[in-house]
Amino acid sequence: MVLAEIITIGDELLIGQVVDTNSAWMGKRLNEIGIKVKQITSVSDDSAHIISALNEAISRADIILITGGLGPTKDDITKKTLAEYFKSEMYFDEDSYKNIERLFSERGKGVSEINRLQAMLPVACRPLKNSRGTAAGMHFEKDGKIIISMPGVPYEMQSMMEDSVLPELKNKFNLLPIIHKTILTHGIGESDLSELISSWEDSLPAKMKLAYLPSPGLVRLRITAMEAGNSNLEKEVESEAEKLKSIAGKYIFGYDEESIENIIGNLLVNKNATISTAESCTGGFIAHRLTTIPGSSRYYTGSVVAYDNRIKEEFLNVDPSAIEKFGAVSKEVAVMMAESVRKKFKTDYSIAATGIAGPDGGSEQKPLGTVWIAISSPDKTITRQLSLGKGRDRVIFETSQYALNLLRTLIVS
Amino acid sequence: MVLAEIITIGDELLIGQVVDTNSAWMGKRLNEIGIKVKQITSVSDDSAHIISALNEAISRADIILITGGLGPTKDDITKKTLAEYFKSEMYFDEDSYKNIERLFSERGKGVSEINRLQAMLPVACRPLKNSRGTAAGMHFEKDGKIIISMPGVPYEMQSMMEDSVLPELKNKFNLLPIIHKTILTHGIGESDLSELISSWEDSLPAKMKLAYLPSPGLVRLRITAMEAGNSNLEKEVESEAEKLKSIAGKYIFGYDEESIENIIGNLLVNKNATISTAESCTGGFIAHRLTTIPGSSRYYTGSVVAYDNRIKEEFLNVDPSAIEKFGAVSKEVAVMMAESVRKKFKTDYSIAATGIAGPDGGSEQKPLGTVWIAISSPDKTITRQLSLGKGRDRVIFETSQYALNLLRTLIVS
Fold first, then answer.
1. Gap between the Cα atoms of A320 and B345, Å rounded
2. Which residues of A touch B53 (CB under 8 A)?
3. What is the pTM of this model?
4. Quick one: pLDDT at residue A334?
5. Residue B384: φ, ψ to 5°
6. Is the CB of A298 inside 8 Å of chain B's CB atoms?
């Protein structure tokens, strides 16, 4: 197995000013071509610390990818540090300079002195062209290990990876492809799910590993498989995913990069059907999720966010006596909201949600996190009561997740 | 200087399925109380590798914060690994079990066997309560170093940090307080802002550092100050912030942890005023932002999300001939939406937004990112045209930012 490590350099990462998104991007792309990332290390702009992190990484991995610290200002010390590490003189690299000139002339400017110095590179490296920025990448080798330094600006690093680093690594190593399959579940917790599928999990072949990735309102299961010379591996993974579907299918709403909102979008487009929403406790969040999907105007007409009970009564035909009798957070009110918006907005489907997001408003009978959702279709209106506990943001998110998934199951049923 | 290191554990980080946002959050909070993060290390769910990373971190830092791998399933091995590392037996922790029971009962469920096992903890640790999840945190000490293991779910880790870890660290170490003051600006880019305030920036005393933190629709300026034995430091920072206000006040909408939505909430509560919204391109996102604030039902009545033009006409009294003449994305339509929802929902203020979020629907006259916003008050209705360019999510977010800030300026004017 070919192993890589990632070292990201920059004070801004350690003081939490910037989230390191480069490592996840690189990890994903390396994994796809069959290179496993062993460790990700973030260190400050400090020469001694960069060198000790590099030495440790070299002791464990075949490939070290470094990002950051290649800018033109004083606090960028990666190039100088690597030149010292490889005991290398600097030279003026004509090709890199031409690239810098090109970038400046595209903006109608001449090259400034500090950017000119970016074309000075260690003799020990092979330069890698940066098509989108002024800092060249640097490819070093040492005792059979590969060390590559790239800029920290995400789109510059990404271009350099796609243009040169990934193709070269694929060429150099005889890589075993890694197959990933992610199964998206909703409506069952991590522990219940693991009990439900434990005999399937135990019978997985050794070449496949299973991981649980829980997040609020969602548990993802990831199958990872690797086997030399097995061109049938992808099919074998699919077949395990099929077995899983027969056990836990009622909780599975999608695969890999899908989301409930894009699945719903595709279902509605295929059916040529439309949807509207009536939201109380979710305050427009369900509408927001549906409309993050490009092209959602083809099926989504709109929403009445009825935070105030008067809005529920006047604009969603909720009977004031129902609110008095059952409360605003009740099955009856959720049904009236869903049926009214479906009729008024003339859509095929509708979603309604009413609940207590907190932190105030709970009671003994209806504690915080009590939510009623209703989904209305041309045939029927179905409802669910949720008990989501405390945490305003989480209650809003999980309500949207339950409501959208209930809609999905109704559409496909 | 007290040094900390962060170790994040999980295969999902190394294969790039999840971006490590925990480290940046922890780095920021540690920095604020005067603890410097030396290194961030991400490793896989592998016992030997976790232990070697821990040993290396202990050799460099005083405090090691570990997240991840505390779930109830088979791939979660952090607890077992730490028990081995500290050569510790396991015991059944009654308090942790009560916490697990409480969380299950809030959802009307009994505790399953595998969650019950989460109350088994190493004798060598002092448990840390997880108010939002079933995995307890663990506090270890070894040769004067502190090792703390926390869950990887961000909001669980964050609560544990705020509730116990940060207060305990502040107590234990004699930390040099770092004063931070963050100034929130909107409506001016990073480079224009830096030109506007350059002479103020140059005159800052050496004990204060300034950082620019740009993000879509917002540039934060952070003043960081540190000086031993200066009890007046906070006042000195405030005085610099006052000077900045006299230069760039028109762009400053708040300070520190404030958000436009909570500032608006406070303004409306103080005025005993109410607000409603009418949204097209933002699809409910403005409603969502307003209703993330606890207690927003005191001033927010609701929204009409009018994605479809028919909804604009039938429910917001938008004149069909205005749509025909000026287009749905126009000043005229934005004004009609704002005035209609304010009247219908009987509120003091209202916000309306209509625009082209893309990726389709742009034209030469109205390119992608063209947006009209309108704010209506008892006295008048004001409008703005925005040109936000491409990027659906960014257009939605920045529209909400401009609209909320315009409302804020109207309320305070």
1. 17
2. 39
3. 0.81
4. 98
5. -145, 145
6. no
